[in-house]
Amino acid sequence: MREFQRSPIGIFDSGVGGLTVLRELYRQLPNESILYFADTARLPYGTRSAGEILEFVREIMDWMTAQQVKMVIMACNTSSALALDAVRDEFDVPVLGVILPGARAAVQKGKRIGVIATPATAASNAYRQAIEEIVPTAQVWQVGCPEFVPLIEQNRIYEPLTKEVAKQYLKPLLQLKIDTLVYGCTHYRHLEPLFRQILPSSVRLVDPARYVVSAAEKELELLGLKSNFPSVPTRFCVSGNPETFAVLSRQWLGYIPKVEKIYLPVITSTSSPIQVLE
């Protein structure tokens, strides 16, 4: 059991979005060692089909379990929406997604809830279903935001274009007078300064990264896997260009990490239109 406690927690995302979960792990669970994988060769996930997402997640889970992780956190809302239930049945390691913890937090803050997400997550209705199961009277509106992830991954967060895109996506939610906004993609936490400029101060912001780590801690304690030993440095791996990821992640990590290249099958990305789902 002591050796299992020392094993790392695996986190994966399509890119730098999962760094929001990583930072929460550093803050809430400083003794845990981490294996971080970014599937940058195949991002963005949000314009993929459900079949593609499930295939990608299975490949990542196969690789992560071979690295002897003790838990996997899907730091990706699209994967959580489309593949979580399937892989939980297929793998012995505990697997956590970000949607249910985010939904639980949202209903504690408001009843008119907006969700900004990738098109695939928005189309899945995963947040609406999770929120309405908890509080059936809550009202939920979802907006698919396909341009956000590419802008973040291209390090264009502070460009005027990004602010205009954010205004476009948030406009229908403002018209609906939401009182709570959920980041339905872990990338979106990186845009919070823009959201605060655009939204009224009364709108509460929900970052599911914070709450999935709290859920992970409870699960580790329940299973007797929470580490009481000093952590080892985080291992960063990507399917795309290691140097690009290292340079981009510096602004959120505070240092340029050493990044390994991992070879997984690469499939050409597809496009999807902006969606507003009520």
TrEMBL record:
InterPro entries: Asp/Glu/hydantoin_racemase (IPR015942), Asp/Glu_race (IPR001920), Asp/Glu_racemase_AS_1 (IPR018187), Asp/Glu_racemase_AS_2 (IPR033134), Glu_race (IPR004391). The active site is at 76 (proton donor/acceptor), 185 (proton donor/acceptor). It catalyses: L-glutamate = D-glutamate. The gene is murI. Its EC number is 5.1.1.3. Pfam families: Asp_Glu_race. This is Glutamate racemase. Coiled coil: none annotated. Substrate binds at residues 13-14, 45-46, 77-78, 186-187. Pathway: Cell wall biogenesis; peptidoglycan biosynthesis. HAMAP family: Glu_racemase. GO terms for biological process: cell wall organization; peptidoglycan biosynthetic process; regulation of cell shape. Belongs to the aspartate/glutamate racemases family. PANTHER family: GLUTAMATE RACEMASE. It comes from the Bacteria. It comes from Gloeothece verrucosa (strain PCC 7822). Keywords: Cell shape, Cell wall biogenesis/degradation, Isomerase, Peptidoglycan synthesis. Provides the (R)-glutamate required for cell wall biosynthesis. GO terms for molecular function: glutamate racemase activity.
